[in-house]
């Protein structure tokens, strides 16, 4: 393939990438506008924009009241010139700063170093700081806690692994919200207790159920900050660990027997299935069976809530989907971050992107049981509402 053909292919690839990123920014911009000003979506109208790589076709979102217009598109202007907006959009889409600098240099005919792009995207830090400290609703039906490990550069230490703590909440009506994210040296129950204390201070006072993995000490940390909340241990994590502890030939049968426990139609039926697991596997794998028997209350806590919600409550799958999107953004950044602020930029932009999507699609089933969940919150917290305080 000759050089001219390669250039043509590169220009076309970049043009398509820019069009895709700009369309994403348009969608997020309208969502943000409607969240602040209210109103309803009203389709799109076509808009052409000239770039150094040729024309891109966009679908500009509209609202019913005709009050919305994209923040980064000026009326009647048909050429893209806002470097800062595009830099942030590229970064949010998972494009590394070096690659974004190359794209902008080709797109606008001017050289942009990755240091320049870093300075442009640093403007996001102020918004990220506001996001991380924003007041929270007083109550959430369910809160997921989980973490991931990232490589971060620290002065004098080089590249080190640090833990990102993430809290995700679901309101009684099914609305999802990223409650916060924190960067700490390691994941520990003590670290989570500090995170929970911050959630309390920011206004979150009533939670029905926390859903987490089996990190030692975490249930006790939850009880110290939210003594009236319940704890659900993630069934998926429990099954994965259990299967990793048994012989390969036994994994299929054990997985089926465990599925009869957490897939039962009632708590009583689940406990009966657990007795069968104990009889069948207890002598061969006492550690595995002991875990399920000892923590049966935590594994089966979801049975105390409306059946339509069981798939959401017995695992941290909703949180894991969010973390997968974060990890997708880390892959194009060579799996390491030049400084702590870069982690916060990525998490903030991903949180904003996901919350924009969630605003359009509430979780199924919650509309049916919203009043039930609100009543559960009222009954659980009403007796001590006037006296309960937290001094962490």
Automatic annotation (TrEMBL):
Presence of keyword Lyase: no
Transmembrane segment boundaries: none
Family that this chain belongs to: Belongs to the transposase mutator family.
Domain of life of the source: Bacteria
UniProt KW keywords: DNA recombination, DNA-binding, Plasmid, Transposable element, Transposition
Function description: Required for the transposition of the insertion element.
Protein name: Mutator family transposase
């Amino acid at each position: 393939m000759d050089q001219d053909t390669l250039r043509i292919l590169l220009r076309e690839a970049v043009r398509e990438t820019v069009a895709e990123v700009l369309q994403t920014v348009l969608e997020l911009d309208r969502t943000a506008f409607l969240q602040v000003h209210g109103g309803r979506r009203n389709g799109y109208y076509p808009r052409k924009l000239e770039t150094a790589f040729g024309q891109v076709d966009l679908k500009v979102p509209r609202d019913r009241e005709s009050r919305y217009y994209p923040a980064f598109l000026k009326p009647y202007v048909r050429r893209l010139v806002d470097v800062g907006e595009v830099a942030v959009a590229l970064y949010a889409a998972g494009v590394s700063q070096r690659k974004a600098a190359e794209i902008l240099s080709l797109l606008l005919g001017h050289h942009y170093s990755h240091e320049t792009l870093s300075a442009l995207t640093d403007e996001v830090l102020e918004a990220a700081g506001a996001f991380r400290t924003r007041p929270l609703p007083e109550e959430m039906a369910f809160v997921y806690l989980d973490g991931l490990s990232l490589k971060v550069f620290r002065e004098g230490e080089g590249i080190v692994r640090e833990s990102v703590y993430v809290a995700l909440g679901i309101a009684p009506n099914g609305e999802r919200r990223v409650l916060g994210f924190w960067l700490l040296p390691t994941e520990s129950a003590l670290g989570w207790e500090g995170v929970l204390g911050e959630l309390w201070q920011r206004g979150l006072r009533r939670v029905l159920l926390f859903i987490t993995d089996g990190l030692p000490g975490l249930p006790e940390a939850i009880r110290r900050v939210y003594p009236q909340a319940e704890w659900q241990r993630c069934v998926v994590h429990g099954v994965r660990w259990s299967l990793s502890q048994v012989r390969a030939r036994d994994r299929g049968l054990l997985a089926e027997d465990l599925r009869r426990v957490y897939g039962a139609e009632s708590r009583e039926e689940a406990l009966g299935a657990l007795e069968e697991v104990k009889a069948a596997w207890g002598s061969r794998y006492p550690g595995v069976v002991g875990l399920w028997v000892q923590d049966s209350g935590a594994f089966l806590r979801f049975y105390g809530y409306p059946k339509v919600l069981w798939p959401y409550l017995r695992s941290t799958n909703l949180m894991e989907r969010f973390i997968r999107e974060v990890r997708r953004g880390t892959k194009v950044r060579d799996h390491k971050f030049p400084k702590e602020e870069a982690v916060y930029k990525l998490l903030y932009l991903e949180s904003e992107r996901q919350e924009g999507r969630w605003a359009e699609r509430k979780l199924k089933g919650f509309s049916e049981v919203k009043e039930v969940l609100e009543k559960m919150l009222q009954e659980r917290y009403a007796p001590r509402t006037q006296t309960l305080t937290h001094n962490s």
